[in-house]
Amino acid sequence: MLHFSRIKTAAILITVALGILFALPNVLPQSVRAHLPNWLASSRVTLGLDLQGGSHILLEVDGDALRKERVEQVRDEVRRVLRDQKIGYSNLAVRDTTISLRLRDPADTDKALVELRKLAAPVSTAMFGGGNSGEMDLTVSSGAEGALSLQLTQAGLEARMRSAVDQSIEIIRRRIDQLGTVEPNIQRQGLNRILVQVPGLQDPQRLKALLGQTAKLSFRMVDQSMSPEQALEGRAPPESDVLYGQDGRPYLVEKQVRVSGEDLVDAQPGFDPQNREPIVSFRFNSNGARRFAATTQDAVGRPFAIVLDNQVISAPVIREPILGGSGQISGAFTVQQANDLAILLRAGALPAPLKVVEERTVGPSLGADSIEAGKVAAYVATGLVAVFMIAVYGLFGGFALIALAVHVTLMFALQSLLGATLTLPGIAGVVLTIGMAVDSNVVIFERIRDEAREGRAAISAIDKGFVNALGTILDANVTSLATAVILFLMGGSGPVRGFAVTYILGLLTTMFTAYTLTRLMIAWWVKWQRPAKLPI
Amino acid sequence: MPLIDYIPAHTHIGFMKLRRFSFPFSAAMSVFAVVLFMTVGFNLGIDFRGGTLIEAQTSQASADVGALREHLIDIEIGDVQIQEFGSPRDVLIRLGQVGETEQAQQTIVNEVKAALGSDYTIRRVESVGPSVSSELVRQSILAMVLGAVAVLGYLWFRFEWQFAVGAIVTTVHDIFVTLMIYSLLGIDFDLTSIAAILTIMGYSLNDTVVVYDRIREMLRRYKKLPLPELLDTAVNATFSRTIIVSTTTFFATLALYFFGGEVLRGFSLAMTVGVVIGTYSTICVAAPILIHLGLRSRAAEPKEEAKAPVKPGPEDVLDVEEAAEFIEAEETVEGKSAPAPAPKSTAKSSTQGGKSSTQGGKGGGKGGSRGGKRRG
């Protein structure tokens, strides 16, 4: 066991050298790093959000809202199809994901079935290049006496959820990009969740405000057939809704959307030239411009409402037809509100509301404190372990400490290379492995002592000690690895996973440093000293 | 040369005899732990219960927790806990889950932030909604169970089943005791705690496996040695290693506890306790429990199996007195391989045991394995 071929020696030394090389950029100051080649300079440990400060926000696409919207959409289509085909019906009702109705004349059943089935579309699967799974997103069935029911299928709803998540990710990215400077990490989690990680943000509240809004903009007419107060007393016309303004004032607004935010091509914050108030000016595409012109031509003198997510932002009176396809929204904004509204309008509306189901935000000062505390703990642990190991094993303890130093170096090198994130629990993992890393060394040294006690000569005892310890070291580390890997798999995306990563890397590197590297050092020492007696 | 040699090279501590004290002690601790779980329970953190945690730092010399509390109670946000966190300038505010929706929670958080005013900077906000927290509970339980199963499987594959069971019993014991500390001291139980528990699990197993490895090796080498003696020798042989590694790991967890910062304090305390208890259990539970799990000197087995038929043949028939002794020994020393000289606790069996040991010294292994056969 004490013989190393040249190639093996070289391989071990190269591994150590590479480890030092790739760990080095972590401790070099920025001025030195600037002169390094890019592949090396970038070899640094990525700090988790809990260390560098930032926000980790888990959003959930509101499945209920999505389902409700879809089922209402289908109901409207059913209405349109039956009207176009002149098929009489009654009792059109929506329950959960089912739409039911009764045909006036049961003889129309076959015709209605054929027409309504045209509404169903095949569900495209996201996997394997968008092939069809053969399932439809809607099933239509008939019962007795002209009863019909349309059922949204699970597969169809799931496909819708998938595309809603994809769309939302795109829109979130656009919104955050508008904030500038930050590099967000946005990814899908499971079927209906989106993880947004934004490092180093000074104002997480603003981020959440930007993410939490659906930003569905619509231009609708104000219904003047009665006052909003009358409508609130329960007699609202069926084609209108009572919506509230930012100040809590009620408005009676038509349900019909004249122009929607989808037709916007641009939105910019600015100031009203007359009263210097912050405003958002916008421009429609040709379709929107045409419809906006037609609406305003018909309704000069009447108020219309600019509605954002069911809230009336403003309800100005149309003084003259707006034909140019652009306009402005003024709603007693602050400058930042105007800015954010412009961002939201430019990025587009989310397909469904998002809710924040988990948030972890750490300010940069706490992160810096945590790093500092972690460093101190690591130094103290190393110091204590060093003194103890040298006290117990003397020279061999020194070998173990060199191995320990290389172990920590390799851990950082691997972490830098893999781009793994170092979190606060991850620092705990590093400190912990400083204590545990000497385990393999201790197992070996104790074995060597045992062999010497049984009467072997020094060199033979060393050799035998290494042989006998190998199995034990493997068994012990594999069991630890098993729990660490499970922690990694279960740890989700958060800090705990960071702990698992450092722990796993630590176990792997100790097996190399404590066994192979220590063995090489001792082999050299044996060659040089030819010891007759063990120093331990 | 080592400066100090305070860990004796040859220990001859009768660890197996210690089980008379350590088993009841460990059993009592485990039962106490379970009672605690059911009565006191855990101080579940927001990860598992949902809710919000806000860490804030005041620009004043120290935070006025009392005034803050009154201030927050005024705005009626339900369940609120405020405590100093680490330094007098830092406070930790915990809000329970409010309402069913995540939206309600967000509103409350904003209200608290407004109430804190400009004297405080918010250092950290963690908010977990009800759907996520229940998932985290499920995931964490799954992680622990999977961890145990994976390790059990590996040990079973590498060792005999008795070792696997012994290791699991020991590990579960360690986890219970660690959880007991969480329950007793009311430490926040959150995701980091799960990391701590799984790490302790890994550490405890690591420790146990090193000793088991030696026991297995000795079983092959010393075929005639009675099990308790063999176990004692193995534990003594690995004793210095166990103590040295526990000490270095203990240093690391202690350094984390004192210097690692407030956020990691619960984690490091649990780890420190886990290291101590893991060491104790390796020596005083993991090894001696093998005696009771019916681990036989494997050495005697293959030869015996070749010779002895599965059912006792005529040459295997013992005389009545001998048979009675065997049955007695089996009943009192359950699953014990050799009627070894280890004294039994009850008066009756101790005389019997003494008697059987006089003639069992040589044939103990043989008789034991026969006894085992007969049972099966």
Indicate the mean pLDDT of chain A.
Answer: 85
Q: How many structural domains of chain A?
A: 3
- Calculate the terminal CA-CA distance of chain B, rounded to whole Å: 55 Å
Helix content of chain A: 40-55%
Looking at CATH, the homologous superfamily of the largest domain in chain B is Multidrug efflux transporter AcrB transmembrane domain
Q: Name the helicity range of chain B.
A: 55-70%
CATH architecture assignment of the largest domain in chain A: Up-down Bundle
Low-confidence segments of chain B, ≥5 residues, pLDDT <50?
A: 298-376
Using the 3D structure, state the CATH architecture of the largest domain in chain B. Answer: Up-down Bundle
CATH class of the largest domain in chain B: Mainly Alpha
Tell me the structural class of chain A. Answer: alpha+beta
CATH superfamily of the largest domain in chain A: Multidrug efflux transporter AcrB transmembrane domain
Which oligomeric state applies? heterodimer
What structural class should be given to the helix and strand makeup of chain B? alpha+beta
Going across the biggest sheet of chain B, name each strand in turn. 3-4-2-5
Biggest sheet character of chain A: 6 strands, mixed
CATH topology category name of the largest domain in chain A:
Multidrug efflux transporter AcrB transmembrane fold
Number of domains of chain B: 2
> Which outline of chain A best applies?
elongated
Please write out the topology.
The complex is a heterodimer of chains A (536) and B (376).
Chain A: H1 6-23, H2 30-33, H3 38-41, E1 46-47, H4 49-52, E2 54-61, H5 63-84, E3 89-95, E4 98-103, H6 109-117, E5 122-124, E6 132-136, E7 138-142, E8 147-152, H7 154-177, E9 185-189, E10 193-199, H8 204-212, E11 217-221, H9 228-235, E12 240-245, E13 250-254, E14 259-260, E15 264-271, E16 278-284, H10 286-298, E17 304-308, E18 311-314, E19 326-329, H11 335-347, E20 354-362, H12 364-393, H13 395-418, E21 421-422, H14 424-453, H15 458-490, H16 495-529
Parallel strand pairs in A: 1-21, 12-18
Antiparallel strand pairs in A: 2-10, 2-20, 3-4, 4-8, 5-6, 7-8, 9-10, 11-14, 11-17, 12-13, 15-16, 16-19, 17-18
Helix pairs in contact in A: 1-13, 7-11, 12-13, 12-14, 13-14, 13-16, 14-15, 14-16, 15-16
Chain B: H1 15-39, E1 43-44, H2 46-49, E2 51-58, H3 65-74, E3 80-85, E4 87-95, H4 102-116, E5 120-128, H5 130-158, H6 161-185, E6 188-189, H7 191-221, H8 227-259, H9 265-286, H10 289-292, H11 300-307, H12 320-332, H13 347-375
Parallel strand pairs in B: 1-6
Antiparallel strand pairs in B: 2-4, 2-5, 3-4
Helix pairs in contact in B: 1-6, 1-9, 5-6, 5-7, 6-7, 6-9, 7-8, 7-9, 8-9, 12-13
